[in-house]
Design goal:
The protein is an all-alpha fold. Helix content is 80%, strand content 0%. The chain binds fe (ii) ion. It comes from Rubrivivax gelatinosus (strain NBRC 100245 / IL144).
């Protein structure tokens, strides 16, 4: 990957995480079940954290962070049933895992790479948690 392709991949992930944060927040506010609400709030918290990390990573690599929200938000919020939406959210998280697995070997900057590895581990953990739920 060229440096421009790495930046484009980071911005694509940023837009996806921003969409995920919106979806988790909206879904948590709709959830009647306390365990589901807590799970969605934890996911939202994580998504916001990774948005911040990705914006810093783009700046570190001398790019401009995207301010767009991924189309995932519209698609996910169109699903009325919260359990079905959670399944869709988990598919989105799995997409993020695949993107990170491909991107991480291409990143030379040690700090950015370590942050992306932490994001990968957290996503794997959240996927397992949501599946168990
Ligand atoms: Fe995510």
């Amino acid at each position: 990957m060229s440096p421009q392709e790495v930046l484009a991949a980071l911005n694509e992930l940023l837009e996806a995480e921003r969409a995920g944060a919106w979806v988790a927040r909206q879904s948590a506010s709709e959830a009647g079940d306390e365990a589901m609400k807590a799970l969605l709030q934890d996911i939202q918290h994580d998504e916001v954290r990774w948005c911040g990390m990705l914006m810093r990573a783009v700046r570190t690599l001398e790019g401009e962070p995207s301010s767009a929200v991924g189309d995932f938000r519209r698609k996910a919020l169109a699903i009325a049933d919260l359990h079905e939406r959670l399944v869709f959210l988990n598919k989105g998280q799995a997409w993020v895992v695949r993107r990170l697995e491909r991107l991480i070997p291409e990143v030379g900057h040690a700090e950015v790479k370590a942050e992306l590895e932490a994001m990968l581990a957290a996503h794997r953990h959240n996927i397992a948690r949501a599946e168990a739920f």
